[in-house]
Amino acid sequence: xxxxxxxxxxxxxxxxxxxxxxxxxxxxxxxxxxxxxxxxxxxxxxxxxxxxxxxxxxxxxxxxxxxxxxxxxxxxxxxxxxxxxxxxxxxxxxxxxxxxxxxxxxxxxxxxxxxxxxxxxxxxxxxxxxxxxxxxxxxxxxxxxxxxxxxxxxxxxxxxxxxxxxxxxxxxxxxxxxxxxxxxxxxxxxxxxxxxxxxxxxxxxxxxxxxxxxxxxxxxxxxxxxxxxxxxxxxxxxxxxxxxxxxxxxxxxxxxxxxxxxxxxxxxxxxxxxxxxxxxxxxxxxxxxxxxxxxxxxxxxxxxxxxxxxxxxxxxxxxxxxxxxxxxxxxxxxxxxxxxxxxxxxxxxxxxxxxxxxxxxxxxxxxxxxxxxxxxxxxxxxxxxxxxxxxxxxxxxxxxxxxxxxxxxxxxxxxxxxxxxxxxxxx
Length: 427
Hints:
427 residues; alpha/beta; Udp-n-acetylmuramoylalanyl-d-glutamate--2,6- Diaminopimelate Ligase, Chain: A, domain 1; UDP-N-acetylmuramoyl-L-alanine:D-glutamate ligase; Protein-Tyrosine Phosphatase, Chain A; 3 domains; seven-stranded parallel beta sheet; six-stranded mixed beta sheet; 16 helices; globular
């Protein structure tokens, strides 16, 4: 069966599923292989649970005429997604970057949804499987699609762009994320710039923060839609940005007070304003959308508990995002402050140096107490009155239970694997 025939079968289905535990009626089940499983073995179960078709690449699990056999289910899923994207022909905005991708994607969606029927990547399904599933969730009713693209090695963004064929792109920033896979900062820049390469070669448009020297230099020869706080010749000029702690932006005479904290989120908001204005969403609707947006999933949330104000930013961390989170925390005005910071993962050979750099910065500011948790921070342990090191989260837990912390501003940040949101159970 060729891709045109498979797509015809897909169009009769309500959705695509790769997990029989979440399978819906009249869905197409795609049997993918993992390191420790082979979903081909669930083909029969998927049909019993209501799937209309199952896509397999192991003939041993053929069931009946509802079974579609292909050479490789993953590559077929990707090919099907690209075919479906071209079949729909809707405008697609893609975004990538080291930090802020998911928040920016959500802001794009709430802003554009004020005028258009939009669909966007769910959660952080932004890899070689998630992007195809996102594209296959778009329908004839979808007016604008928003696709988040993540990567931890070079050539991945290029591959995802080839599948999604975006008409517009945005790179949030170039930071110290996934250094191990990319082979250092220059590798990160090269990898994220693959989106620019695709858009440039196919004569498509890119949203650009021209206050970012790297974004500006890499897009000078492209068709750009720009925003800035300093250059009034750009497409969207941002008059004012404040963040104490919530980001407030003034643009086109409108004051927008968000529920996001930190100057690092200001750029995310500015990009969403720019996207909205480019697609002719009225500024009053943009203001409403941004002011109504509430962060969740441990991303830049402020939580009040036991008299404490907790800045929960524990979804993930890398040297760049950790640095800006600390700088923002330093600027926040409060009589009592504590930072709870966890290890940063996927840094490879740079891990020791990057954790050391963070500790050195913290040493120079004794306005708040800092608890540093994990093996990597413990390796760069120093004797300093306001810095406290714990090799494991369990060690920290034992200590924390002996403390009484009240009326305090608390920053919680670390890589996803540290799961530092567990601290809230004790605070």
